[in-house]
Sequence to fold (275 residues):
Amino acid sequence: MIAALYVVPTPLGNLGDLTRRAEDVLCSVPWVACEDTRHSAPLLKQLGARAKTLPAHQHNEHEAAARIVDKLRAGEAVALVSDAGTPGISDPGARIVAAVRAAGCKVVPLPGACAATTALSAAGLADEHFLFHGFLPSKAGQRRQALAELAGHACALVFYEAPHRVLDTVADMAAVFGERTLVVARELTKLFENIDSLPLTVAVDWFQADPNRQRGEFVLIVSGAPPGDAGGEGERILRLLLDEGLGTKQAAKLAAAISGEAKNALYERALALKS
Ligand code: SAM
Fold:
């Protein structure tokens, strides 16, 4: 095995999803850099891997990168794993990969489990393109602004969300995006895996109808803005009013009154357009 940083995806839930190549790498390298060494230890033990582990989490990526580069320069191979799925995808790893490459060392990515692509493969949306956003801001105002900035994209929008925030996030999505399709991919590859497709406008009621629907891990996919419709009639009016020099509040109020669309959503959109 050549001295390189091997970026190794690990299962989202079902251990059968570890690829044969990933197993080979984890069992061959002398070092495994882990987002959480305690979390990855059972998997390494189960594989019979004898590698030593070193921590490589969000708060020590800089030091971890330096240690990894030292090992690579000494001719040792290192694998990088996160708690689940692909490192660097809403997980630590990007800075380590950048530092390793900047040091002139080799990075070898392995294909494998990723919640976003797993959900997309079963979403069944007609959109030809998708935009991966990952986690939205936890603060409501920032979240709505981030959503408003995405509202005009004519591609499926892919989000990660935690169970305690899923209801608020879906409510904000409905307010900002209006009539779209929402795909809820919950607990992928696990015992209670569920993939549901529903109109975004009824999504809050749907989540509230059964508390189990708010449990577990989520990928939320929203269908894109209809082609040629960068946000609909409300947004078209909003843009005209902003171009005429109206303030965001007044423009949103008038655009809502004329189009019949939600004032809050148009206000968030106005803020995004201004910025
Ligand atoms: N690196 C991972 C990947 O490749 O998908 C993502 C890590 S991110 C910290 C964790 C988020 O991914 C969760 O909050 C959830 O949104 C999503 N996720 C992870 N496992 C999942 C699963 N089994 N089902 C649905 N979503 C999942």
Notes: The chain has a mean pLDDT of 94.
